[in-house]
Design a protein that fits this description.
Blueprint lengths: L5 H13 L5 E5 L5 E2 L5 E2 L4 E5 H4 L43 H18 E5 L8 E3 L3 E3 L4 E5 L8 E3 L8 H9 L3 E8 L5 H11 L5 E7 L12 E6 L11 H8 L7 E8 L9 H12 L3 E2 L4 E4 L33 E5 L4 H10 L7 E5 L12 E2 H7 L9 H8 L5 H10 L3 H7 L5 H7 L7 H7 L16 H5 L8 E5 L15 E6 L4 H15 L7 E7 L8 H10 L3 E6 L10 H7 L1 H9 L3 E7 H20 L3 H11 L4 E6 L1
Parallel strand pairs: 10-11, 10-12, 12-13, 13-14, 13-15, 20-21, 20-23, 21-22, 23-24
Antiparallel strand pairs: 1-4, 2-3, 5-8, 6-7, 9-17, 16-19, 17-18
Helix pairs in contact: 8-9, 10-11, 18-20, 20-21
Length: about 650
């Protein structure tokens, strides 16, 4: 049975690669004058100490050696490792004799913990700090564990602080017979989780008690006693960070007797990869024996949220955040900001429901919810920091509100909005649920139901119409305190560990932001005397006036640490308007960098820069390899595993 827990086995192997139980072992030469790589001579009977932490981080053997990647131990890869490349228990006769028993015990212990408990960080932004006593351990690292069990009634709200939960309601909590449901999500940008949470909060209305978790957490544990809803996006045609293990598990071809449906999220402008992973997951589960309870759905999560710039152009802000003492981060990590709704909107909502700012509410819920439950919280705090008030109302929510209208004309008017007029009258004008309540006064939506249908306020840096993130950050003053945490970005979108590897960065507009960090790191390494590879930035914007960080870049350019190649779309550039034009002009140089193991990075708009730069690289590869476009696409896809990385925004 333990042999089936393949991913736990891989996790242990990868853990011991990075933190072996034995720090080193010694070898003695039986013959004399052995010349080691680097010119070192070992004489007879001399002792050589092998450092396991360095052996297990040999970049010629381990790709991205400092990263924790259990997948490198799966699907026969561990068995294909060269002899003596993984020796966490020591060497030869002096190696740990109890390792087989310890291995079985460890797998069993981890499996039982995961079976009976949900585990989470006490501090989600924790970054590894080594504490050394007799052994090495993570300093200040704490986890919170909770039994895997759930209560069972729908969301209820008591507006008055003094009110207690009625005895009848308490009895209902114990006896409500809700059927179980699992909602599993995957995504890098944070768009799928709020959608999953909203779906779970509405599940009791249809007789279900839904739990929400990441797809990776369901590896080996897909239940067959309940419907499973899977929602995920693709990342450049690959699984998202919290979906990789799940896809690897499916590819091991387990037998799955489950009832499921898949909902794919994404952006329609990513033509080649839109819905690729959701479709793949849907097909592979069906082939493994799963029963599809509904056809795969597809949603363009970002298309409806885009706002084109006005004639005055986009607004940019440069903010520097001082992190708490002891908080660390890596170049190109994300800073997730918990923004708040504008106060003026909060007061309008309070007025709509005849509530004061100090009205206390107590929320009781049987399902997982983003609300604070079972103790009083002010209505102001809930509306300010828990729910998103400005998101456009959905078609389904329009139908719900229409059914609550007492005025027949208003009801008909709302129903008509659910048809052809929805995009023009709702999405383009950014009409929220609250806007509808103001426009249609006969709609009697109770405050508890209003809270139930609102999405959570996400940790995000993506701006929304009425300042959920962009307006919030734009109005900050020097010295203001914000709620934020450091989040690890896509593992591939980081500078290479080896500073000698050349890097080529392509950006447009505010897409330069992560590359400023890349270049700052390389400049620091250069100033300290380390050898660095060529560091090249291709940058495009409208004009000289829009060239972000030009003074800094010129300073680093004079140091000789970076090369900058720019183009302006609204100025005469000898026929060149965009960065892809520069890339194509320099295609021979790009090909040479490719042959010299350079890493390529792109950041900017998905539907503009992303599509055009990818097309340009395909043309360059086709010319360099003398192949057709389809073959060039396959080469670029292989390159995307570790040498062609992107970070796009909608």
């Amino acid at each position: 049975m333990l042999s089936k827990l393949k991913y736990i086995d891989a996790v242990l192997k990868e853990t011991l690669r990075l933190q072996p139980t034995a720090p080193a072992f010694a070898l003695e030469s039986k013959v004399g004058d052995i010349v080691l790589p680097g010119g070192y001579i070992v004489h007879q009977n001399e002792t050589v100490v092998v450092s396991l932490s360095q052996l297990h981080r040999d970049p010629k053997l381990w790709d991205r050696p400092e990263e924790f990647l259990p997948e490198r131990m799966l699907n026969g890869r561990f068995e294909k490792l060269p002899p003596n490349s993984w020796k966490p228990f020591g060497n030869g006769q002096r190696a740990c004799i109890g390792r087989s028993f310890a291995w079985q015990e460890s797998i069993l212990a981890i499996a039982l913990i995961l079976k009976h408990f949900n585990i989470e960080f006490v501090d989600p932004s924790y970054d590894l700090r080594i504490q050394e006593t007799l052994t090495m351990k993570p300093g200040g690292f704490k986890i919170r564990v909770r039994p895997r069990q759930h209560l069972g009634i729908a969301l209820n709200v008591n507006v008055k602080q003094s009110e207690k939960i009625p005895e009848k309601l308490k009895q209902q909590v114990k006896t409500e017979n809700l059927r179980p449901m699992s909602i599993l999500f995957g995504g890098n940008s944070g768009s799928c989780q709020p959608f999953a949470d909203t779906l779970a909060s509405e599940a009791p209305l249809y007789g279900y008690n839904a739990t929400v978790a990441t797809l990776d957490s369901a590896v080996e544990y897909l239940p067959n006693d309940r419907p499973i809803i899977i929602m995920t996006a693709s990342y450049e045609g690959k699984p998202c960070e919290n979906t990789k293990q799940f896809v690897a598990y499916l590819e091991s071809k387990p037998k799955l007797e489950i009832n499921y449906t898949v909902f794919g999220a994404g952006h329609h402008d990513w033509i080649d990869t839109y819905q690729k992973i959701p479709t793949y997951i849907d097909e592979i589960i069906e082939n493994a024996g799963g029963t599809r309870i509904n056809e795969r759905g597809a949603g363009d999560f970002f298309g409806a949220l885009e706002i084109e710039a006005s004639e005055i152009g986009p607004m940019e802000r440069h903010l520097e955040i001082q992190l708490p003492k002891g908080q660390t981060y890596h170049t190109e990590d994300y800073l997730a900001v918990l923004s708040t709704n504008p106060i003026e909107i909060v007061y309008r909502v309070l007025k709509q429901f005849n509530l004061s700012s100090d009205t206390r509410t107590k929320i009781v819920s049987s399902t997982d919810t983003f609300f604070s439950t079972n103790y009083p919280v002010s209505a102001f705090d809930i509306l300010r920091g828990y729910v998103e008030l400005a998101q456009p109302i959905s078609k389904r929510q329009i139908v719900t509100l229409a059914g609550l209208c007492k005025n027949e004309k208003e009801q008909i008017s709302l129903i008509n909005l659910d048809e052809d007029a929805y995009e023009k009258e709702i999405l383009e004008k950014r009409i929220s649920i609250f806007d509808i309540l103001e426009l249609y006064p006969s709609c009697e939506l109770p405050f508890p139901q209003y809270l139930r249908i609102l999405p959570s306020l996400p940790l995000s840096g993506l701006g929304r119409y009425y300042g959920i993130a962009s307006n919030y950050l734009g109005n900050l003053k020097e010295g203001d305190r914000i709620s934020c945490s450091v989040r690890t970005s896509n593992v591939r979108f980081h500078p290479p560990e080896d500073t000698k590897i050349p890097i080529v960065m392509t950006a447009a507009g505010t897409g330069i932001a992560p590359f400023r960090g890349f270049i700052q790191e390389r400049v620091a390494q250069f100033v300290c005397g380390r050898e660095i590879g060529r560091t090249i930035l291709y940058y495009g914007c409208r004009s000289d006036d829009d060239f972000l960080y030009s003074d800094e870049l010129n300073k680093w350019l004079k140091l000789g640490a970076v090369e900058v190649k720019s183009v302006f779309s609204r100025q005469n550039n000898n026929g060149k308007k965009y960065v892809q034009d520069l890339l194509w002009e320099d295609r021979n140089e790009i090909a040479n960098l490719y042959c010299n193991s350079a890493r390529f990075y792109t950041c900017g708009s998905a539907n503009k820069l992303g599509v055009s730069v990818k097309a340009c690289f395909i043309k360059i590869i086709a010319e360099m390899q003398q192949c057709n476009e389809e073959e060039a696409k396959k080469i670029l896809e292989k390159l995307s595993i570790d040498r062609f990385s992107v970070d796009f925004f909608a």
